[in-house]
Amino acid sequence: MALEWHAEGVTVDKPYEGLNEAEAPASADMEALRRRDRLLAALTLIAGLGLLLALPFGLKAGAEFFLPLTAALVIAIALVPVLEWLERRRVPSPIAALFCVTGFLAAANVALAAIVVPAVAFFRMLPERIGRIQMNLRPVLELYQSLEKYIDRTAMKFAAGSARSVARAAQTQQAPPSSLVDLIATSAPSVFVHIFFGILVVYFFLAGWTRLRRETITSRASFDGAMATARVIQDVVDDTSAYLGTITVINASLGVFLAGCLWAMGMPYPAMWGGIVALLNYVPYFGPIVAAVLLALGGMMVFSDLWVALLPAAIMIGSHLLEANVITPLIVGHRLTINPIMILISLSFWGWVWGTAGALLAVPILIIAQTVIAAAGKPDIASFLFEHGTLEQRRRAGRGR
Q1: Which of 134, 229, 276, 323 is the most buried (most CB within 10 A)?
Q2: What is the pLDDT of residue 172?
């Protein structure tokens, strides 16, 4: 048993009493090592929390660099299966990477021609269609007279501002953009630099992918480490490309279906509306809501009957519910199941950091992070604090006193 001695009212234990001379120093060394490890772990935890708190503000302040870099890396990872398919057919890596980048740019240009160009022309008619929108909404607004007055004032201000914008556009005689390069060059030349930087990152990432993966795996010190690294790399590529590829096919099918329905109804620019729905469907939860609101606005600009005007939005909501609850779970399955709370947190975080582009990248980034953490292991912070940490030690000290 440990002996106790008293000095000025203080009781001190002799922890090594009862041990022989060889065991006591060994126990002291183990205690010192344990305290050193605890100190290093605590400092690591504090540094990690500081980095975690500073990271969002750093990403937001450096959005001009981090946003195109992150988007390029996500796109490049999604294109890796196409690159490997070309390489298996003896296409050199630089040429295969060029094919992948060229194909992606062609698809983006087609999407622009189908969505942005008609959207510019369609929504230029908004000031002229304010009266029809008000006429469609009149049965509803009559129930809320105060709200009607507010809407009228807002619509008049909006119409006046839009009319001035149209007049200025007519004076300058600016035509709608007809291609991706035309849109970037006429709207914000600095965006062209960012996109060009992203394209270069995608190309060089894909061109050096095979060599980079081989060097990363072979640089491990052990066979188990090399196998674990190879497994993580393959899981990241498979999960990211599978999600983006599957969701792209589903969203495109949804857009084509909606475009067909709108064409049958006689709504102008059905391909544009299908493209808008397909693009916004990449953003979980919030994207379909925005698409339904835009369809309702577009329907009220075209049709004079309120119920007919709301039919496009109703078709979109019904098809989205079918896609989200039946088709996507059936195709994707449980492999890429993500916690809805984590999706909402990711959408909120990346949307705050990078806006709409961040919301589009939120789920792919979450999938990559989830795959890496699943392979590396989650840090057990709760165990650090409450089971083997300082809080547990303080509680024991309190019981001792």
Answers
A1: 276
A2: 44
Q: Which residues of 303-342 are buried (b: 16+ CB within 10 A; e: fewer)?
A: beebebbbbbbebbbebbeebbeeebeeeeeeebeeeeee
Q: Give the separation between CA 113 and CA 105, rounded to whole angstroms.
A: 12
Report pLDDT for 269. 82
The whole-number pLDDT of residue 395 equals 46
Segment 17-42 mean pLDDT: 65
Phi, psi of 10 (to 5 degrees): -105, 130
For 165-202, b/e burial (b = at least 16 CB within 10 A) is eeeeeeeeeeeebeebeebbeeeeeeeeebbeebbebb
Nearest to 348 by CA among 362, 336, 338: 362
Q: Position 57: which residue type?
A: F
Angle at 246 between CA 372 and CA 345, to 5 degrees: 50
Q: Which residues contact 250 (CB under 8 A, 6 or more apart)?
A: 281, 323, 327, 328, 331
Q: Which of 111, 121, 108 is nearest to 269 (CA)?
A: 121
Q: What are the contacts of 213-220 at 24+ separation with CB within 8 A?
A: none
Longest dimension (CA), the chain: 98
Q: What integer is the mean pLDDT of 161-179?
A: 47
On whether the pTM is more than 0.70, the answer is no
Res. 95 pLDDT band, cuts 50 70 90: very high
